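User: For a benchmark we're assembling, each entry needs the component sequences followed by a predicted structure for the full assembly. Here are entry 17's components. Please fill in the structure.
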Amino acid sequence: MKDKKKIDIEFSEKRLESLFGKRNSFPVPEDYFNSLPNVVMQRIQAENTNNAIQKNVHFARKRWLIPSISAMAAALIGLLFLFAPFSGSFYGPNEQKVANLDSNNSLNSEYYFSHILYNLPYSHILNSFNQDGENYLDSVIDSRGLIPDGALKEEEVIDYLYYHMSVYDITQY
Amino acid sequence: MPQEDDKRLLNLLAQEKTKNYGFELLVKAYQERIYSIVRRMVISHEDTNDIVQDIFIKVWQNLNSFRQESSLYTWIYRIAVNESLRYLKNKKIKIFSSEADVQKHLEQLIDNPLHFNGDQLEAKLQKAILKLPPKQRLVFNMKYYEDLTYEQMSDILGTSIGALKASYHLAIKKLEQHLDIY
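Assistant: Structure for entry 17:
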């Protein structure tokens, strides 16, 4: 019974072959198989480079967190000293709000900056950098050719903060 | 491909300084067979070219996880089969609403000499093959055109030999019906 089935299939297969053949009728561009290995190797090299770039960008972005927080604190100090002589109180409303967190209600700037440094979620800082900021970061990284220390320099972060973020942006958290 | 050649390739691929050279040899050794099985599934050269490149990139990316439990040939072929089926599934989801639409689209490609240059009878057979469900079509192509044994097909597809024989038998019977050759 088993053999009959096998013979039946073999017969059908032979009949198909005799009627329609087994020819490969799918045209392939000339030289395609000569060039394919090179194409594949080039793609592999490009993907390896892309992976390296992504790793560097990821690393650069992570490293950027530390100087960006420091830069925000530095910018705030600068701005506080700049505007303090013209205001009635040394501390603005946001600083007052933070200062009020102090149980002794003492107006302590050190407390304020430590609050920013230690209590402000990183995600808030990252979210505050809009698309322009991302582009800015990318352009700086591109201009450096993604060398291993491709992270932003502190002064570049400060520049960014000055040009893209208002005091309100920084102090609203 | 003889096993000694696979061994040689694997040795070259295992060493960092000969890895690229070894991979280029691997592509040269397998490209035509992989191309053929994909082309019969997706018909268009452009799509086949994309898929074949993706297959070799996947092979490259997963070389470290290849445990040599199966032969290199079986492993590469399995990736090729999965990629072809995935492509057809994606095409169905993204461009066409049903398998019948995908089949219609592929049949139209058969009528285009850019994609198929066989005679009328061959075109008729190809169109009948396209009427088979994708997995059955794959089984038919692997056996009829690629001359793979049921054992090889079983390794590649992870399906029992009995099920493959039944599937091939059914495919032949359906083709006879579609082609009206009783």
